[in-house]
Design goal:
The chain has about 230 residues and is of the alpha/beta class. It is built from ten helices and ten strands. A six-stranded mixed sheet has the order 6-7-8-3-9-10, with helices on both faces. The structure holds adenosine-5'-triphosphate (ATP).
């Protein structure tokens, strides 16, 4: 579904991604794990068109997307839940969700997806008229995920959804990610919480200083000695 081939991304003179190649098949949950500053967020931003790669290719369903503007990429069916959630704090929950559907004009489909996200996160239905900024951290993460779903993505990119949340909320978010996947969305999950991410993923990639250094089935990575030492604290 998505393929990165030899992608190199720079911030000015600083090279953040080095020859990154990876692929995601339709229906999978694939995770990208790695330490702080490894290049995980840069990988997602490169896919979304936020920072175009200097070289290499990104193909979505076989079509090159590395030179497209972010709104075109969203329209093709890729949407991102950014790190730190980045909801609109002064807009209500409903208005934040409306922003997610900004590029759509199928009113009936939008209504169905609104019902879907309120089903996933009933608390958001209760807080519908409340400003996003007044929600708890966990609720803001739920809103950020819901806003991304309102774009009706076939590929959902999540950047550290567990960041700064209490363990019980993290459990809830991860099981909702599994449900969203079971309901048909392919998921690319960037996480520092490698343990949780590998438990719900089919496959995983490990990134160090801008390079992919390992890739395997999630279960194999979970039992790999080097991964356990470096990323699982075991
Ligand atoms: P984190 O988990 O902390 O978000 P990460 O794995 O997502 O880490 P990136 O945020 O992608 O890592 O950062 C990769 C590298 O690029 C780091 O060395 C970082 O300092 C650098 N970098 C990130 N954003 C910028 C920027 N706007 N300008 C310059 N360098 C940047």
């Amino acid at each position: 579904m998505l393929e990165l081939r030899g992608v190199n991304t720079f911030y000015g003179n600083i090279q953040a991604l080095r020859d990154v190649s990876l692929h995601i098949r339709e229906g999978e949950i694939v995770t990208l794990i790695g330490a702080n500053g490894a290049g995980k967020s840069t990988t997602l931003m490169t896919i979304c068109g936020g920072i175009p790669p200097r070289s290499g290719q990104i193909l979505f369903r076989g079509q090159p997307i590395h030179a497209l503007k972010p709104n075109r990429i969203v329209a093709l069916g890729i949407s991102q839940v950014p790190e730190g959630r980045l909801i609109f704090p002064d807009l209500t929950v409903q208005e934040n969700l409306d922003m997610g559907a900004f590029l759509r004009n199928d009113a009936r489909g939008i209504r169905a997806d609104l019902d879907y996200v309120f089903d996933l996160f009933p608390i958001l239905a209760q807080r519908r008229r409340q400003a996003g900024g007044t929600l708890s951290g966990g609720e803001q993460q739920m809103l950020a995920i819901s806003r991304a779903i309102m774009a009706r993505p076939s590929l959902l990119l999540l950047d550290e959804p567990s960041l700064g949340l209490a363990p019980i909320i993290i459990q809830q978010i991860f099981s909702i990610i599994e449900k969203i996947n079971a309901d048909g969305a392919t998921v690319f999950l960037v996480e520092q919480n490698a343990n949780q991410a590998l438990r719900i993923a089919n496959r995983g990639y490990v990134m160090e200083t801008g390079r992919i250094v390992m890739e395997d089935d999630a279960a194999t990575l979970l039992s790999n000695e080097a991964v356990r030492k470096a990323y699982l604290g075991m």
